[in-house]
Amino acid sequence: MSIFQKNSDMTPFNISFAGAGRVGTALCKEMYQAGFNIDLIVSVSSEYGESLATSCNARWSSELIYPDHTDILIVAVPDQQLKEVLHKIVSGPETLVVHTAGSVGIDDFPERIKRKGVLYPLQTFSKDRKVNFKGLPFLIEASDEHSVAVLKLLAEKIGGRAEYADSEHRRMIHLAAVFICNFTNHMLTEGHDIASKAGFSFDLLEPLLNETISKALDIGPGRAQTGPAVRNDQVTIEKHLELLSFSPDMQKIYNEITRSIIQYDYRQSI
Q: What pTM does this model have?
């Protein structure tokens, strides 16, 4: 029976995974809790792979060979490994093979994989930290309308909301996510180090951090911008640069971000 002929309420999909890292683990456990059959976990690491397989009543293997009864194969590996893994996969002709990367297009699949798609969760994942999937955006794309419908159903069954995005637009959202998540977290790390150098705990900055994020969500980040750079307060800026004399790298970051803020037209956000 084809995946598209299955009644999702009567016959749960057979789902397998390639990768047992942060994304694969989170998705696998959530889908298992939602009632899907998890069949096979393939990973290089037997430690993580076997542990995940045990928790989801599945099998583990180190070989990228999947049985024909696999309905959906989710490839959740680091972006730099994805193309190689996709070309090594052996799966049935009816299997819908999808990857979870935001920056990799659907054209990166080998030609022999006919049913293919993307299930990109717009979230950051960490080990030993449970993500709330309720309302979580999943950007989806697939080779055909039936596969799009399947991925939409899959996202919704675990509490997420599906939104179609082709490869070009998904790459732009992934870029935005890098700024919002990865770059912001690096700024928090630098702020943590500066506070520590002054003898203060990072907890002291928690109310400021909470209000910064809350305000950006409430009124928009452009309207929420404050600080010496947006005022072009050169006296304060020079004092800050002098304080950062212990770290030329931090001085460079401060200079570049300050220049960007000064040059940005915040009036367009009002």
A: 0.92
Checking 124-131 for CB contacts under 8 A at 24+ apart, the result is 124/181, 125/22, 125/23, 125/26, 126/22, 127/22, 127/25, 130/26, 131/26
Please tell me the distance from the alpha carbon of residue 50 to that of residue 129, in angstroms, as a whole number. Answer: 19
Residue 231 to residue 243: CA distance in whole angstroms: 20
Residue in this structure with the two tokens 């000064």, named with its chain if needed: 262
Strands 137-142 vs 116-121: parallel, antiparallel or unpaired: antiparallel
pLDDT digits (tens, 9 = 90+) for 241-270: 999 999 999 999 999 999 999 999 987 766
The neighbour count for residue 203, using CB atoms within 10 Å, is 8
Asked whether 117 and 142 are in contact (CB, 8 A), the reply is yes
Give the H/E segment covering residue 184: helix 184-197
Are 155 and 135 in contact by the 8 Å Cβ rule? The answer is: no
